[in-house]
Amino acid sequence: MALQAMSASDKGIVEQTQEKLAALKLQLPELEGKAHKKERTQVNKEIYRLENDEAYVAAMKAKQEVSRAERAADEAAAEATAERERLLEEAEAERERLLEETEADAAGISVAQLRERRAAERRAAEKAAAAAAAALEREAVVAIGGMLVRLIGMSGPNSPRFGATSTGTYELSCFACNHEEEWTENHSYVPLTGCSVDRGVTSRNPQACPQCGASNGTLHESAARRRALQ
Ligand SMILES: [Zn+2]
After folding, report:
1. Ligand 1 center to residue 154 CA distance, Å?
2. Global pTM?
3. Distance 228 CA to ligand 1 centre (A)
4. Are residues 92 and 13 in the same domain?
5. 44 CA distance to ligand 1 centroid (A)?
């Protein structure tokens, strides 16, 4: 639709008249009281005359019509865009439907079965993603601090029969400072980790990192935090 713009002369009339009206209205507050009655009447008359001037009224009407036409054109354009989008969506849905049909045919199943299969795959993927996220969360929590000593290998009968001793290989890992140690110890019974030094087991203190002093108590706290996070 071709828009009819406001003519330059209409524009000029509107601008000039409104400037004059604004200037006149600015005078009014100064013209209060009996002393200025005559001047005030004069100004009001002039305002009335300007506001009702035939050319001004016609120009204002033209201005309103132009903005109405502009709004209508905007609305028509928005409607056309919405209709185009709707058609595109429809075409896309149809394409999806055909693809689904082709795929279901190729697999020898119905479209409903194919959709069910896809939904199951999506659920499995979501579950795997949630498990991966949970594993990451656990790792992050454990890595906050703490250390542990664990038995990683053993040789011998692990029994004091015939005075035999067995050898245990231990590993200390600190999650706080990344300190790591590996060593061996000989005992009649090779102790598992988790026992304190006082009870005469592993030669390294399983309660404190020899490098940074981190305690494995932090791990216990972390487990509590982990439970709190669940
Ligand atoms: Zn450490």
Report:
1. 25
2. 0.38
3. 25
4. yes
5. 90
